[in-house]
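quick q for whoever's on today - can somebody do inverse folding on this one?? i tried earlier but teh output was garbage lol. tokens:
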């Protein structure tokens, strides 16, 4: 089976679900509390593993109970955790998440050990990059590490899928080395200056990212679907309509699933349909990794 290397963050998500998101200074009573395994990198690694991917996860956790629990969770999903680094001087990542009844959320992250990822950590993982068929990474770790990873994979000819979340400015040089970039509307706007609201504006933003050198651009448009731009086609692939209870990690599930599909040799539009299905299922359930589907829940493409 073709190997997937996911590099990124691991968090414990402390979640309160209430009727509506509080405004600054407002207190909203009557919420329910949950603790979930989260973090963009971990969510993408777990999504890929649950769907049958052969996943190695490179991450940093603190020397604390939250980090140990997180790593145990990855092991249960069959993920290779032998390269996860424990940082003795940091706490493990924590995200405070508020979710409202519509499924919309807002998130505040204390990165802890995730913020200690360095270019040296990537250099030390060169063999892992070399063995991977795909590298999947996000922006919840320092840009220094992401850049080192993209440079390394590019030099070795290993395709990189970058989910540019949370939104941060990126150099054209970095974008030019990507096989796929998968921003959502806000991330696409930050990277291109185009306000993305629909298929037309997504096409405009995607063209800019292609001009910067990304081979394939996939802009995720939430319930509308995912817009693909390659050198051969531009197409909106609609998502499956569901009743959302919690949209946390929908993008992570999409990216993990997309990478599994590509690692199995699916062509890009089929891979996006596969990823759309997985993301749609994830928003019907609470939590990040807890909401992600296993393979048998997806219809064959
Ligand atoms: O993408 C969702 C994730 O973002 C959550 O699991 C939370 O940990 C934050 O990192």
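ok took a stab at it. sequence:
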């Amino acid at each position: 089976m073709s190997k997937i290397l996911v590099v990124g963050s691991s968090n414990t998500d402390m979640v309160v679900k209430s009727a509506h998101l509080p405004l600054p200074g407002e207190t909203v009573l009557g919420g329910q509390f949950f603790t979930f395994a989260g973090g963009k990198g971990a969510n993408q690694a777990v999504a890929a593993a649950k769907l049958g991917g052969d996943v190695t996860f490179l991450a940093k956790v603190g020397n604390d109970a939250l980090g140990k629990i997180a790593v145990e969770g990855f092991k249960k999903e069959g993920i290779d955790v032998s390269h996860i680094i424990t940082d003795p001087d940091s706490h493990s990542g924590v995200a405070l998440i508020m979710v409202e009844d519509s499924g919309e959320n807002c998130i505040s992250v204390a990165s802890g050990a995730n913020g200690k990822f360095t270019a040296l950590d990537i250099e030390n993982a060169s063999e892992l990059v070399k063995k991977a068929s795909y590298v999947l990474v996000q922006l919840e770790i320092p840009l220094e590490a992401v850049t080192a990873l993209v440079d390394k994979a590019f030099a070795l000819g290993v395709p990189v899928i970058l989910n540019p979340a949370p939104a941060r400015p990126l150099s054209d040089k970095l974008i030019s080395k990507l096989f796929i970039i998968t921003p959502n509307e806000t991330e696409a706007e930050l990277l291109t200056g185009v306000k993305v609201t629909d298929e037309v504006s997504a096409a405009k933003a995607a063209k800019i990212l292609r001009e910067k050198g990304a081979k394939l651009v996939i802009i995720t448009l939430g319930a509308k679907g995912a817009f693909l731009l390659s050198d051969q086609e531009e197409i909106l692939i609609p998502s499956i309509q569901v009743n959302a209870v919690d949209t946390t990690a929908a993008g992570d599930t999409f990216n993990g699933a997309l990478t599994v599909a590509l690692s199995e040799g699916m062509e890009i539009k089929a891979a996006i349909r596969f990823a759309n299905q997985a993301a749609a299922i994830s928003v019907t359930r609470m939590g990040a990794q807890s909401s992600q589907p296993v393979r048998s829940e997806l219809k064959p493409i």
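fwiw The first strand starts at residue 3 and ends at 7. also The domain at 6-21+33-294 is CATH 3.40.1190.20 (UDP-N-acetylmuramoyl-L-alanine:D-glutamate ligase). so keep that in mind when u check it
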